[in-house]
Design a protein that fits this description.
single chain, about 375 residues, mainly beta, Immunoglobulin-like, 3 domains, six-stranded antiparallel sheet, five-stranded antiparallel sheet, 6 helices, globular
């Protein structure tokens, strides 16, 4: 079972937030100043972005920044500066348009423990890098086209006694995705492979930037992006928000584990609107269900790479369409989502099957929109 966690738990203090709302023509905007928490000295050229999107900027020489989004919604605001703890907070830009913040950054206290940073990367490091890439980027055609530009910032701790493999990055990873045409900056917060339990966990903050070519290459990127998006978990939740799951090509069935072993799947598709409710704010919806949901995307078959990746005992769709299944961890009763397909609490849902196979190499930004036909 593979778990892909792309959300960082909020561990940092939010210092002296200053709220000011106004109507304007700037779209949906967060402005503010970044400074050191002790000296109050402003920090120039800090990276400021909405995680998982193409919306990003840097602070100016006086630590000031202006970050814009073109649509309302909930965003994960991330601010990073070398040597400091990553700042993260969720911001709601639904009704009001401008949020002003005074952001204080704290010096990093991360201890890499027994990790040895080597100037010359040996054969063991190369083997660890290959394992990291397979788990982090994936093994799809899109993932195989990705290149980590600054591999040298990675170091690994393969603790055989605890049977845990960990990866660390001293700087944000820079990934070029040549199939999708994105340059991705990824702040890796944690990466672990648990050998005994046979699953991996990693999370961090990605930001996307167009690689900027034109002509046939750009048309190829547009086609590949659409293919990556269609059938994805973001596509599913966007369709679910609009109550158009069937029209979008998805079929959903309930399933549960049996006491004597095995798993039973109800062959009657679920009417998904019966599992969805609208939150009091009027813009957020919640999906609540028991046991498992099996989700088949009818408009695309499994890739050859997935067939190689797939465990022989894993369930398959009857016509080799893309099959994923999800469940809510113990103690979780619902997963919240918005019109864009954005999951407000993505740690509340565990993905398997095709969605478990798709990793960073198949991600498109949260603000991606397929071209209208």
């Amino acid at each position: 079972m593979t778990k892909l966690f792309q959300k960082y738990l909020f561990l940092l203090m939010i210092c002296s937030p200053m709220w000011s709302w106004a109507q304007n023509d700037l779209g949906y905007t967060v402005t503010g100043v970044v400074s050191d928490s002790v000296s109050n000295e402003t920090l120039p050229f800090a990276s400021v972005f909405f995680s998982g999107t193409t919306f990003g900027t840097t602070s100016d020489k006086d630590g000031n920044f202006v970050l814009k989004a073109d649509k309302p919604g909930t965003y994960d605001l991330v601010i990073s500066f070398t040597g400091y703890q990553t700042y993260y907070r969720q911001v709601d830009l639904n009704e009001q348009q401008i949020l002003r913040l005074n952001v204080k950054l704290y010096l990093s206290t991360r201890n890499l423990g027994a990790v040895t940073v080597t100037a010359q990367k040996d054969e063991a490091w190369q083997n660890n890098l290959r394992l990291f890439k397979r788990t982090f980027l994936g093994t799809s055609a899109n993932a195989n086209s990705c290149r980590i530009v600054n591999e040298e910032v990675l170091n690994f701790d393969d603790n055989r006694s605890d049977r845990v493999f960990e990866a660390y990055a001293s700087e944000p990873l820079i990934i070029e995705n040549k199939k999708l045409g994105y340059r991705v900056k990824y702040l890796l917060e944690e990466f672990k492979i648990y050998y005994a339990q046979n699953y991996s966990v990693f999370y961090g903050f990605p930001s996307f930037e167009e690689m900027g070519k034109k002509g046939k290459v750009k048309k190829s990127w547009a086609k590949n992006r659409e293919k990556a998006y269609l059938g994805s978990i973001s596509h599913f939740f966007k369709a679910l928000y609009e109550d158009k799951v069937t029209e979008a090509g998805f079929e959903v069935n309930a399933a549960k584990d049996m006491k004597r072993g095995g798993r039973a799947i109800d062959i009657t598709p679920i009417k998904m609107s019966t599992l969805v409710s609208t939150k009091p704010n009027g813009t957020t919806k919640s999906l609540s269900f028991e046991n498992y949901l099996y989700i088949v995307y009818r408009n695309e078959r499994e890739s050859a790479e997935y067939k190689m990746f797939q465990n022989s005992i894993s369930p398959k769709a009857a016509g080799n369409e893309q099959l994923s299944w999800i469940f809510l961890p113990e103690g979780i009763t619902e997963v919240d989502f918005e019109q864009s397909g954005y999951l407000i609490n993505p740690l509340a849902v565990v993905t398997n099957g095709y969605w478990g196979f798709e990793k960073l190499g198949d991600m498109v930004p949260m603000d991606y929109q397929p071209e209208e036909k």
